[in-house]
Amino acid sequence: MQSRLELPSLMVIFGGTGDLTHRKLMPSLYNLFYQNLLPDSFAIVSVGRRDFNDEEYRNQVRESVERYTRFKVEEAVWEKMREKIYYIRFNFDDDSGYDSLKAMLENLDKRYNTLGNRLYYLAVSPEYFEVIVNKLDRHAMALNESSIRRIVIEKPFGKDLESAEYLNERITRVFKEENTYRIDHYLGKEMIQNIMVMRFANSVFEHLWNNKYIDNIQISSTETVGVENRGGYYETSGALKDMIQNHMLQLLALTAMEPPINLDTESIRDEKVKVLRSLQPVTGEFVKENMVRGQYGRGEIGIHQVNAYREDERVSPESDVETFVAMKLYIENYRWAGVPFYIRSGKRMANKTTEIVIQFKSLPKILYTKDEDLLPNLLVIKVQPKEGVMFQFNTKRPGTGNDIIPVQMDFCQNCMAENNSPEAYERLIHDFIKGDTTLFTRWDEVDFSWRYVEEILRIWREEETDLRSYPSGSWGPEEAHRLLEKEGRKWWLV
Ligand SMILES: NC(=O)c1ccc[n+]([C@@H]2O[C@H](COP(=O)([O-])OP(=O)(O)OC[C@H]3O[C@@H](n4cnc5c(N)ncnc54)[C@H](OP(=O)(O)O)[C@@H]3O)[C@@H](O)[C@H]2O)c1
Asked: Could you give the domains of the chain?
């Protein structure tokens, strides 16, 4: 159970009028107020460019909370939150704005007894990360001997290794690693946290979690949406940087890591990093044999005809940016030697799903030789939109015959109305205030994953790797299926 937080603090949200704040941060803060989890001494200050007074801003927040909260809006709870929200308007480049903000925060410290503790949340586009950190430093708002100063950096953390290294140096020079919280909101999702519990709290799974019993592991994250209005950003990114570098490698690390020596933050992160360090090296041969890059063409999503990626108005008609990646890789350590990990992520796919499928090895076909259809045991960890765990096993079909059929034990966590799972941001904000960095990425994790995808990008560039087209609404390019079929396997859709 989450416990009530005790750190008296002021949370400052840069980008307080933006989409992220309205859709995720404020509704999550409301949910924390609703559950009475926030500290008694707490208030929120939002920074934006639009011209609002506190009341106008609060009314906007109320609308967003009503729209996106998972709990009903109760007047008493909203009133408690409402009176703790403040708004200040200035341009992030403007020094005088920081003077005003500083004075405002010092006044609020007196009103709320928040002891100078500051929780800065940068819900802004990456070009402002450095600007804001520098200004906070220059205005003596970043460090204070006698109080706590932390910062959350939204994704993306850099657009390549060089920019990530630069950004990291600029931020940690001011805030230090232990006070820097790099968001990967996938880590806040219920089932991601559940991977460790599933593995390390159930003897039936952990004892089989190795190359002796597992045939392959598939990690998929697919979306039905295209790039929507993010075409401009996506042209500088692509699926490899947007999904594989962060979310997918994090899922891989959690699935494959060794048991940490205990549950403290650094022990868990140490084990995740070891997985990243054990990834099979990227070579030209590896990329050619084991990777497929694709881009969506026209097609149908449900009953709607949709355009190709290149037809988006913010996208070049000749763009060769990938909206889909599939790959096979090995983790070169004792536990996983010889077990292929298949990863895929794509936009405009047939279905929206994020899941991890563990396919166990088949038994020798000695007793049940006739059963062509004998399916392997599968353990499926469903991350979103359905959250839960499914286990598939074989059983006898009831009746006089000896037929075997696969059946599924399916635990759906978010199907139960009373078990309404928290939004990832709710958990992450809670941990941020608590000072728990476990669900945020440490610099060496970011560093390794950037090095890994940069090598792939370099080879793609130098060897002009083919870009495969796939129809919107499909399961990606044919080549992604062949990646498994040539080894007698297939992508599971469960
Ligand atoms: N939206 C999401 O669901 C989502 C999900 C994951 C990560 N993220 C990340 O979160 C960050 C914010 O995304 P967003 O979608 O919320 O962006 P957004 O809707 O464009 O909001 C940007 C915010 O920054 C403010 N701003 C921009 N330039 C400013 C300036 N020069 N001075 C002062 N304020 C300025 C805007 O204020 P005004 O509007 O008042 O001008 C607005 O509050 C990005 O790094 C994004 O990658 C977003």
From this structure: 9-154 (3.40.50.720), 187-485 (3.30.360.10)
